[in-house]
Amino acid sequence: MDQRPPLRKNPLVLVVDDDLAQRVLVQEALGAAGFDTDEAEDGAGGIARITDLEPDLVILDVMMPDLDGFAVCRTLRQESRTAHIPILIVTGLEDEESIERAFEVGATNFLTKPINWTLLGHHVRYLLRASETESELRAATLAAEAAARAKAQLLANMSHELRTPLNAVIGFAEFMANEGLGPLGNPGYVDCATDIKDAGDHLLSMINDLLDLSRIEAGRAELREDTVELRELVRVCLRTVAPQVEKAVLTLDSVLAEHLPAVKADERKLKQMILNLLSNAIKFTPADGRVELAVFTAENGDLIVQVRDNGIGIAPADIPRAMETFSQVDGSISRKYGGTGLGLPLTRSLVELHGGTLELESALGEGTTVALRLPARRVVQLGRQAV
Description:
CATH superfamily of the largest domain: Histidine kinase-like ATPase, C-terminal domain
Radius of gyration: 32 Å
CATH class of the largest domain: Alpha Beta
Largest sheet: 5 strands, parallel
Distance between the termini: 50 Å
Structural class: alpha/beta
Number of helices: 11
């Protein structure tokens, strides 16, 4: 059964006060100002009446026997049905401690006695408008969060649906390129099959990035943590991007600390982060340029994985945009170099899952330095396990 109160023509204000004369005066003033009113003569009765009626606003006296106004206010704020109702506390106490306590227990505002009857209606009307605005903002926030969850779920579903046929395309293209059923005849067919596989691998990589982002945005990303040997992981990453480096005619250097520790991390995600940074640097560095991968520990024990290039760079003012999902700093650059704008945002999300940060410094025409910073608690060294 629907427990919501009926629609009202006028706002309903409930007055809770053990003083009968005060209740009458407040209700008369509010009635003259166009408000409907109801009342309760003590704290317990006020809680029951407020829960039943769900008024638009409560005027609550502090000094009541048994259950004072502070206790009533605290109780109302702890109940989901009444937590949103604006509460105007009326007190004869003007000391700072009482005022602070009123706000601590959840009062929206307070009035001191004697009440200015001329201004009471205006005061109530202002609080109601503020409450309505807050409710609208709260509803808009909830709607936006629901839309974000729906979008993330849609992207996840689409990614799953796309990966199955794409894996088949990649598998058959590789099978044909390897001439699994015998010679294809014209060597050009082998090249075509290889191109199909390469394009499929690229598309699958983008879909996987999209799926990872959607999981993170939906709060469903999980870390499969293990002890990762960084030196070996770096070797794998360098081998992976070697064809890309050769095609781009670049120099790729690696600088690893002599005593490189292991880290407690999700190895697949850490590899993905490093490859994203390397691929970005290679993509945006012109021929004969230089890319450097450095791995070391900072003075505070944090682990740093740093990729530096002397490529086209980013204007400092554009760095925040480069961190946004699907954002491209310059449309002409994206058309020239390709990419979806997922690399840096995904990398930042993945390192934040590990409790770390992504740091980026760049200057237009001078190159870019990007660093993954994993907290010291993830470092495994000298026989000590990370916690």
